Amino acid sequence: HVAAAAAADGKNIVRRKLTGYVGFANLPNQWHRKSVRKGFNFNVMVVGESGLGKSTLVNTLFNTSLYPPKERKGPSADIIPKTVSIQSISADIEENGVRLRLTVVDTPGFGDFVNNDESWRPIVDNIDSRFDAFHDAENKVNRMNIIDNRVHACVYFIQPTGHSLKPLDIEVMKRLHTKVNLIPVIAKADTLTDEEVAVFKKRILADIHYHDIQIFEGPRYELDDDETIAENNEIMSKVPFAVVGSNTEFQNADGRQVRGRKYPWGVIEVDNEEHCDFVKLRQMLIRTHMEELKEHTNNFLYENYRSEKLTSLGVAQDPSVFKEVNPAVKQEEERTLHEQKLAKMEAEMKMVFQQKVAEKESKLRQSEDELYARHREMKDQLEKQRVDLEEKKTRIETGRPLEEKKGRKGFSLR
Ligand code: GTP
């Protein structure tokens, strides 16, 4: 039985109920199978001063010894790096048949110098070069297998001072926040008491707010169900996450084997939400928001970078592309444009005509003047001839001989 329902949102979409099973309810499963076959990739950057436990936390997060134990830097000047060097380590990890290619971008040397003014530069350059590589790959003829090396999340380690953010933290965060999803964490939170952590978190958030630093805020889907929204709010309420890292297992007071750090007064459990926010950080990064982080990187951060880059290269964006086209308005616009063109042509023709008339008139006036002048000249000549003839006539009539005139003329010459 097919029942038509009301048109949705005023558009001509009719809702129908199906009588039997068609099969498109299986679409999510298709997507699931395809994604699992393809595998996933996730690139996370860790930024923070040396010794804050970055390597330990990454190993704890993915429950793997991704980072081999590091050689400690010696006192000799030639083995102390002069700048922040960027290193990336990739590993294929698998859980219940789902493959994840994890890449960790580390920033050794950050904050290690007497002058750390430019510490952020190699990090920003590295993020930009990853965007550039993706942009180049997108513009190639073959775009089938683009490898996404962009940084999807940046875990920023804050020293557990208990005071507030350091100027270096603020400077670096300000440089990074438009390019990556910033996730601030308080490193080695086991060195602070619960009250200290609470006060420190408030100060950090106040600093972040004061300096207009944009940190990752999770998805803002109004369409999500209440449970998902509550879960998201719960995770976000822990930012900046106070974390403790360790891959070493100990027996706790109940006799359970737990990952943690052992102190004379007891064991701090990494995976216990009562002890630290590690679980919430892992939940956000891996279990619930990994896709969101990747989407936000692609849709906002990369898009911003791309349009800024194209604008700086002189490629102007056509605002009309984003205007919704209304056929009636467009037709009216075209008509006005056509009328304007006609009016302009008419004015031009009138001008040319007037110019031609003026030229003709001046030519006519000139030839009229010439004619008058010639006429006057001829009239003068005729008048002169008339006077001569008149004189001759009078002389003949009075009978004066012509010779007399001649003789008199000869006499006068003598
Ligand atoms: P670099 O490689 O120099 O950048 O250091 P890192 O930030 O990677 O620190 P790493 O993980 O090597 O840890 C430095 C030291 O801190 C080690 O001795 C760790 O055992 C210790 N450590 C790591 N995480 C924690 C933690 O959560 N709490 C405490 N108290 N110590 C930790």
TrEMBL record:
Return the SUPFAM superfamilies for the record. P-loop containing nucleoside triphosphate hydrolases
Q: Which domain of life is it from?
A: Eukaryota
Q: Which UniProt keywords apply?
A: GTP-binding, Nucleotide-binding
Q: Which residues belong to any copy of the Septin-type G domain?
A: 38-312
Question: What Gene3D superfamilies does the database record attribute to this sequence?
Answer: P-loop containing nucleotide triphosphate hydrolases (3.40.50.300)
Q: Does the keyword Nucleotide-binding apply?
A: yes
Instruction: State one molecular function term (GO).
Output: GTP binding
Spell out the GO cellular component terms annotated for this protein, sorted alphabetically and separated by semicolons.
cell cortex; septin cytoskeleton
Q: Where is the composition biased (Basic and acidic residues)?
A: 376-406
User: For the region Disordered, what residue ranges are annotated?
Assistant: 376-414
Q: Which Pfam families match?
A: Septin (PF00735)
The UniProt entry's sequence similarity note says: Belongs to the TRAFAC class TrmE-Era-EngA-EngB-Septin-like GTPase superfamily. Septin GTPase family.
Q: What's the protein here called?
A: Septin
Give the classification, highest ranks.
Eukaryota, Fungi, Dikarya, Ascomycota, Pezizomycotina
